Amino acid sequence: MSQISTPSYLMRVRADYDHHDVAGGRACGERVAPPRRTAWGMRQGHFQLARGALLYGFQPQNGEA
Question: How far apart are the C-alpha atoms of 12 and 54, rounded to whole Å?
Fold first, then answer.
């Protein structure tokens, strides 16, 4: 018997906002706070990253190792 190795991946998504984004949201009349919008955007980013990994696999030549 020998050990089997399974690759594991850490998927990260980053989003930043500043006072310009907050002011722009207020000017448009948005009723959603920037932290909530950021969380929704990062959730969508995770979904798209996972979807791409499931469809095409991780490709180490693209820095995805």
Answer: 16
Residue that has been written with the tokens 């920037």 in this structure: 34
In a domain, 28, yes or no: yes
DSSP at 6: -
Residue 48 belongs to domain spanning? 19-56
Q: Which two tokens stand for residue 59?
A: 């490709």
The number of domains in the chain is 1
- pLDDT over 90 (residue 43): yes
Report yes or no on 63 lying in a domain: no
Phi and psi, residue 46, nearest 5°: -65, -45
pTM of the model as a whole: 0.63
